[in-house]
Design a protein that fits this description.
The complex is a heterodimer of chains A (313) and B (300). Chain A has 313 residues and is an alpha/beta fold. Chain A has one domain: P-loop containing nucleotide triphosphate hydrolases (Rossmann fold, 3-Layer(aba) Sandwich), CATH 3.40.50. In chain A, 34% of the residues lie in helices and 23% in strands. In chain A, the strands form two sheets. A seven-stranded mixed β-sheet of chain A has the order 6-7-8-3-9-10-11, sandwiched between helices. A four-stranded antiparallel β-sheet of chain A has the order 2-1-4-5. Chain A is globular and about 65 Å long. Chain A starts with a strand and ends in a 5-residue tail after the last strand. With 300 residues, chain B is α/β, with parallel strands linked by helices. Chain B has twelve helices and ten strands. Chain B is globular, with a radius of gyration of 21 Å. The N and C termini of chain B lie far apart (46 Å). The chains are: A alpha/beta (313), B alpha/beta (300).
């Protein structure tokens, strides 16, 4: 069953480049995704591809310029204030860097208490917080500590605890392990997988790390310069990618993690300079297969289960 | 103010042969960057021991001598290209400085810098000489840094997380460039990284660091095929691969180096630890083609 759906979402930012001039950056353009209950949807792409913006749009943290977000059948752009508030409680986010997302001057207990106050929790705060801490693998001694007394992995566990205190259905995980060492990353990934089963959670998992995404996700979307260029089951996308950009990404991952190579090194050499091609396909300039049609006409995301936006896939 | 003494790097021996690429892999806090900085004498703390390049002990050189040594015999590439370049100086001028400081004339320096930019694969090199760092992408900036590092044909380049700030497609290009350069110039490289995959792409020998110590040193292929030290094993099984095999995370975290655990530094996290591991520190012992420091290496 579908839990959350984004339809034709677009977001443009005005970026000031000097005192008087600004340019428009199309961070997300006409992207639709739908995530089923208890699904892990992975979103990959390089920096600047718009994956974090899409995550924020799905949470309605950021209002889309056009398009709508439908959460549990409620269209959030048309819903009443109370309905949006209620929906918000059921959707949470965990950010990349816990040093920035946790208040350095608040004890862990107070940080976590805020989450309960916000969702008007009626029971005993201490009991509830202790049980959630246990679920994320922290001892109750943590309650009286400040963030700087904890290691990176523990801080990310606190951030996760804060998210699940509100009893959400949907969590956006925005690069949740990118700031962590591999041994700690493995701990957090396994924790995320366990929590999903235990609490029936649905994740939107955003990461630039393809091997991490392929480890946790059921379905995956690949973004390039604000567009979704490929979407499908995780195994299909990573084993039989259709879009040249996905092929390039997978070929660039060190062989220790992903052994598939779709491009030779000569091909990857032309990868820099992702300039926009205003009228046609955005990948045009980097694409080794590009033809005249790609320059003039923008391809649509097309297909049944495994979708791709490419004229020649 | 309270201060503590931290022994970030503790009694490390290793050799890099000519033309070799040696990877130093470890998690944050393992002391790998301190080791890199010590090698080029840029480390702020006290460094003791011997650093020999072609028989010259760097730790015995005077401040003037080491300055001449840096760049011409040994150089370093840092992780973050935007903080390694001067933001208010043109890229060309920064490159030329490497030459003029080492006694070249201005026109020679210009020609050589131009050539270098072409060597590291920067298109429209003449134009790029006149740009400021902020006008270049991250990958291009890292290419400029690499150009500086190889400018004077050094014997050894230390690359400290050279691709960690870059996207994967750009990372693949930079690794490719480093590989080609070391082959065509016969350069020896020390690659410092937390990423085993990056090490595997570039290096033929590898040293695994944990809490300021080397725990396993040897040929990369054989260590990746059969890791002997429990920490190396644990690291390998923490890597998510495309196959859905289960991750076996390592419990706990890297110890506080102002008060390291007694005995083997890995024993609090080690599944094979016995009493001897808590009492006695293991030494690096030769086993087949590598060195391993573990009391129980034969038994596990």
């Amino acid at each position: 069953m579908e839990l959350i759906k984004g339809e034709n979402l677009s977001k443009t930012y005005n970026l000031k480049i000097s005192l008087t001039t600004s340019i428009k950056v199309k961070a997300v353009e006409n992207v639709s995704i739908s995530i089923s209950e208890k699904e892990v949807f992975g979103l990959v792409g390089e920096s600047g591809s718009g994956k974090s913006t899409l995550g924020r749009l799905m949470l309605f943290m950021e209002k889309p310029d056009s398009g709508k977000v439908i959460f549990k059948g409620v269209d959030l752009s048309r819903a009443k204030k109370d309905e949006v508030k209620d929906a918000r409680r059921r959707m949470q986010i965990v950010f990349q860097n816990p040093d920035l997302s946790l208040d350095p001057r608040m004890k862990i207990y107070n940080t976590l208490k805020e989450a309960l106050v916000c969702c008007k929790y009626k029971g005993d705060f201490v009991e509830r917080i202790k049980s959630v801490l246990e679920e994320v693998g922290l001892s109750s001694e943590t309650l009286n500590m400040f963030p700087h007394q904890l290691s990176g992995g523990m801080k990310q566990r606190v951030a996760l605890a804060r998210a699940i205190l509100a009893e959400p259905d949907f969590i956006v995980l925005d690069e949740p392990t990118s700031a962590l060492d591999v041994s700690v990353q493995a701990q957090i990934l396994n924790l995320l997988i366990d929590l999903r089963k235990k609490l029936n959670l649905t994740y939107l998992f955003i990461s630039h790390n393809l091997s991490v995404v392929s480890y946790v996700s059921d379905r995956v979307g690949v973004m390039y310069l604000g567009k979704l260029v490929e979407l499908g089951n995780c195994d299909e996308v990573f084993n039989e990618p259709l879009h040249p950009y996905t092929k390039l990404l997978i070929s660039s991952v060190p062989a220790l993690y992903m052994t598939k190579k779709f491009f030779t090194q000569n091909h990857t050499a032309l990868a820099e300079n992702g300039e926009e091609n205003p009228s046609g396909c955005r990948f045009f300039k980097r694409c080794p297969y590009a033809k005249e049609l790609c320059r003039v006409k923008e391809p649509e995301l097309d297909g049944d289960k495994h979708k791709v936006a490419c004229h020649f896939a | 103010m309270e201060s503590r003494i931290i022994r970030a790097v503790d009694g490390i021996d290793f050799t890099v042969r000519e033309g070799d690429c040696f990877a130093i892999v470890g998690e944050s806090g393992s002391g790998k960057s301190t080791l890199g900085l010590s090698l080029i004498r840029l480390c702020p703390g006290d460094v003791s021991g011997e650093i020999l390049i072609d028989g010259v002990n760097l730790l015995k050189l005077s401040e003037d001598e080491i300055r001449k040594f840096r760049g011409s015999k040994i150089s370093i590439i840092f992780q973050e290209p935007s903080s390694a370049l001067n933001p208010v100086m043109k890229v060309g001028d920064q490159l030329m400085e490497v030459f003029t400081v080492h006694g070249y004339s201005k026109s020679e320096a210009y020609q050589k810098s131009l050539q270098l930019l072409k060597t590291v694969g920067i298109p429209e090199a003449e134009k790029r000489m006149q740009t400021y760092p902020h006008q270049l992408s991250g990958g291009m900036k890292q290419r400029v840094i690499i150009a500086m590092a190889i400018a004077l044909n050094p014997r050894l380049v230390i690359a400290d997380e050279p691709t960690s700030a870059l996207d994967v497609t750009i990372q693949a290009q930079i690794l490719n460039l480093l590989k080609n350069l070391s082959q065509s110039y016969g350069l020896s490289t020390i690659l410092i990284t937390h990423d085993m995959g990056v090490a595997a792409e570039l290096c033929n020998r590898i040293g695994i660091m944990y809490a300021g110590k080397m725990v396993e040193i040897g040929p990369l292929n054989s260590i990746f095929a059969i890791p002997l030290h429990p920490y190396t094993r644990a690291l390998m099984s923490c890597i998510p691969r495309s196959l859905k095999e289960n991750l076996k995370p390592l419990p706990g975290h890297v110890p506080d180096l102002s008060n390291p655990p007694k005995g083997c530094r890995f024993h609090p996290r080690c599944p094979y630890a016995k009493e001897v591991c808590t009492l006695e520190e293991p030494n690096l012992e030769k086993i087949d083609d590598r060195l391993v420091s573990c009391h129980r290496v034969g038994e596990i």
